[in-house]
């Protein structure tokens, strides 16, 4: 919401500055801010649609709609923001003209830097509550909720873009050559394309389906085994159904002389421990089996999730 409000105000001011000065950097930045506003709107729509209840046709719910809308954001940023800016900059380089009323673009750029800085600061504050000890690059790569990484990258790119626009306008004013304004516009377009490609790569991974993080996997492993009825995990797979919804399917080792009632009770207890350790574990399937030395000697399930646990029943 902070990013949406800031970008709408910035977009309006940039278009006014373009109308008075004719600066292509201002036009590119105006379209950039308008695209960013649309992106924030898409993220809000995706978050709302993801809250729908599960249906017979979609039994695991609609949590992954947030990933779809985040991917749409990368497409909008690439096409509307990046490619338009490159085209506009190319045209300005081919047909340069001097800037008029230079104080409009300069004033708007200063205002935009302040507004984007406010939005970026808000995104950093919200992200710090989730990223823990992760670096910023690790947080963007590993975050399952797409909204914060998208806003972080957009705001970071916007601040760099504003600096490029200010540089292009400043050089055009100092030299009297409008080509510099066009060069600054092309640089903005290239920057937006690069950010869009990073976003597309990250959201594509989420769309394909990502496993739980290593820390959550370790918590799940520790929660499953009780050392009495459940003696170990033969193999396990995890999948994010949405940013805050995790599916867990595991084959667990139980004692060969346990009764069905004891196994059922142990499974229920294991599910409760898993949910206590990892609250986003919403869908859990545990299949009991008798641990086999031959199965362990054969190695981990070749179809198991990469990075997931290998067979390690306790006491063997």
TrEMBL record:
Gene Ontology MF terms in the entry: monoatomic cation transmembrane transporter activity
Subcellular location, record wording: Membrane
Q: Which GO annotations describe the biological process of this protein?
A: zinc ion transport
Of the GO CC terms on this record, one is: membrane
Q: What is this protein called?
A: Transporter
Q: Which Gene3D superfamilies does this entry report, sorted A to Z? A: Cation efflux protein transmembrane domain
Q: Which residues form the signal peptide?
A: 1-19
Q: List residues traversing the bilayer.
A: 67-87, 102-124, 150-173, 179-200
In this chain the Cation efflux protein transmembrane domain maps to 2-208
What Pfam families does the record tag this protein with?
Cation_efflux
Is Membrane tagged as a keyword? Answer: yes
Tell me the NCBIfam families matching this sequence. CDF
Species of the source: Streptomyces capoamus
What are the protein's UniProt keywords?
Membrane, Signal, Transmembrane, Transmembrane helix, Transport
Broad class of where this protein is predominantly found: membrane
**Superkingdom of the organism of origin:** Bacteria
Where does the record place the region Disordered?
A: 297-316
